Every structure is written in C-alpha cells, then in structure tokens.
Amino acid sequence: ERSLRVLDGAVGVFCGVAGVEPQSASVWRQAAKYSVPVIAFVNKIDRPGADFPEVTRRINEELGANAVPIVLPVGVMEKFTSLIDLVGNTLLVFSTVDGRPGFEVQPIPPELADEAHKWRKNLIEKVSEADESLLEKYVSGVETTDEEIRAGLRKGTISRAIVPGLCGSSYKNIGVQHLLDAVI
C-alpha cells in the first residue's frame, strides 16, 4: 500500500480464466484510495476457458471500474496469435523469428471487420464520455481520429474515468509490447 502512494500509475493484471480474484480487488481498492490511474491487462488469454469480454465485464461490475477494451483477442488457446488494435484499427499478428518475439501490423480481415467496428464504436463512445470535445464530434457524427482517441484515453485514464483494457499472453509475449506502449 505504501508504494501506491507515490506511483504515477499502475497496471492491474487479471487472469483470463479466473478473472477478478480477491487479492486483485484489494489492490484495486488501494489504488482507488490513492487516486492512482490504472490500466487493466488480462493475461493468460491462450488458456482454455479464457474470456476477455467476460473478465472486462467482471472488472466493471465487481470493481466499479469503467474498463474499456482497446484490443480484442483473435483465436483461442494455441490459435491465439493476434490482437485487433481498436485504436489503430489494425490487426497485430504475433510470431517468433530467430527466437525473438515480434509482431506485424496488418489490415483487419473482412471476417473480423464487423466485430472490430462494433468494439471500436464502443471505445469511441466511452472515450467521448470522458472528453467534451470528442463528445461534440461524436454527437455531430464527425469521425474521430486515432490521435484524438489516444488523447481522450490518456485524459480519461489520468482522471480515472476510463480504464483501458488490454489482453494477451505474457508467457508467449503476445500483447506485452502493446501493453508497454499503452503505459507510455
């Protein structure tokens, strides 16, 4: 708890299968007590029974947060190798080359476009609720740029109005770089 008093921000790590566990809830309440901005990372998405949207729902319900997914997992278990970046509206395909993990940015495939559009619209709505200038654009029907979404996410995160939700598999190094980018 002493550490939370001096932190500029924190990353709440949740299990993709178990979701919000008692220790996570305790630390979350302590972070709220000291007004520490938080990013949520749902780990172990490659495991059987992992469910990112369900864990996000539980974070909102059990912790009273406003967790907003900014990525979506593509594939399950051993076929989980990609994320949809809802801010950049791209597909991130992870692989290992010469023993080094990396990812390639690709366009979102047509079969995933509708789902990505639905979740990106949700992201823009939530970010607009935390930023008046974006709310005006959203209500007017004006398209929001990626940079405006990032700025709105930053503003909403710092004010604790939004908790950006990311997911991945730290063991397979999927989504970790994107989490570090989100911290920055």
Assembly type of the chains comes to single chain
Largest sheet, in brief, is: 4 strands, parallel
Query: In percent, how much strand structure appears in the residues?
Result: 15-25%
Outline type: globular
| Mean pLDDT over the full residue set | 90
* Percent in helix: 40-55%
Walk me through the structure:
With 184 residues, the protein is an alpha/beta fold. Helix content is 41%, strand content 23%. A 4-stranded parallel beta sheet has the order 1-2-8-3, sandwiched between helices. Helix 1 (22-33) links the parallel strand 1 (10-15) and strand 2. It is globular and about 45 Å long. The model has no long low-confidence stretch (mean pLDDT 90).
Outline:
Helix content is 41%, strand content 23%. The chain is built from six helices and eight strands, in the order βαβαβββββαααβα.
Provide key terms for this protein.
single chain, 184 residues, alpha/beta, four-stranded parallel β-sheet, 41% helix, 23% strand, globular
Question: How would you summarize the topology of this molecule?
Answer:
Layout: E1 10-15, H1 22-33, E2 38-43, H2 52-63, E3 67-69, E4 71-74, E5 82-85, E6 90-97, E7 100-106, H3 110-130, H4 132-140, H5 146-158, E8 163-167, H6 176-183
Parallel strand pairs: 1-2, 2-8, 3-8
Antiparallel strand pairs: 4-5, 5-6, 6-7
